[in-house]
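INSTRUCTION: Work out how this chain folds

Token vocabulary: learned, describes local backbone geometry

RECORD BEGINS BELOW THIS LINE
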Amino acid sequence: MSPFLIRILLPVLLLVVTFPQKSNGEFEQWCIADVQATDAELQAAMDYTCGEGGADCSKIQVNQPCYFPNTIKDHASYAFNAYYQKFKHNGASCYFNSAAITTEKDPSYGSCHYDYTP
């Protein structure tokens, strides 16, 4: 191998070894409440997702793992994500009239698990 190629390939190889690629999870996304949304906007969107929207909101009910913290923002985040994960492959978005945003950080906490569907 020529010295020229070695000088080109060696730095590239070092970069690949030094900076490994992210795991397959690099594009995982969850849908959560936007902190800029008002409680009224969050409640209206949550009413839809947990009602006619068809999301499973049972885990944010009293005595369930995602009930606490008992805030509209936290309950809306769970509901938005439940809807988004269930219907994203059918064209659903994480919008809810600007009440929601996507995140690549898993919002699960304690015994409250936010679903992710690849």
